[in-house]
Design goal:
Layout lengths: L5 H21 L5 H14 L4 E7 L2 E2 L2 E2 L4 E7 L3 E6 L6 H14 L3 E6 L9 E5 L1
Parallel strand pairs: 5-6
Antiparallel strand pairs: 1-4, 2-3, 4-5, 6-7
Length: 128
């Protein structure tokens, strides 16, 4: 198990709890951008710094490619949140977040699918 440090783990718990709160208030079936807006607000209420739709350059053999990554949310400059509103999370979605972590140099991310009856069934913690 990775030791991400107490401070980052505390922020991770806040991120998960904020996701639970948004899901409890809004329920499943809405568009991703609705959940994104609500989650940004909820995280802000908790005093966490959140950036949305952050562009991260992709370096390939020493050059920055024209098309950067676009992270849904970046919390405290350390935690990536990829928001989904899908019937099913696929292995591809997990691989996408893992690639985001690897290419950004970050270590912790959450894949949050809000289109589930029970939120705990829609959240995945990914560590790189």
């Amino acid at each position: 198990m990775w030791d991400l440090g107490e401070e980052l783990e505390a922020k991770a718990r806040e991120v998960v709890d904020a996701g639970f709160q948004v899901h409890r208030e809004l329920g499943p079936g809405l568009l991703e951008r609705v959940y994104e807006s609500a989650l940004v607000h909820e995280l802000g209420l908790r005093g966490l710094r959140v950036q949305r739709q952050i562009q991260v350059p992709v370096l390939y053999k020493g050059i920055a490619l024209e098309d950067p990554l676009r992270l849904d949310l970046l919390v405290e400059g350390a935690i990536i949140i990829e928001i989904k509103s899908l019937e099913t999370i696929l292995a591809l979605h997990k691989a996408q977040l893992l690639s985001y972590l690897r290419l950004s140099g970050l270590h912790l991310g959450f894949l949050m699918n809000f289109n589930v009856p029970i939120f705990k069934d829609g959240i995945r913690r990914i560590i790189h």
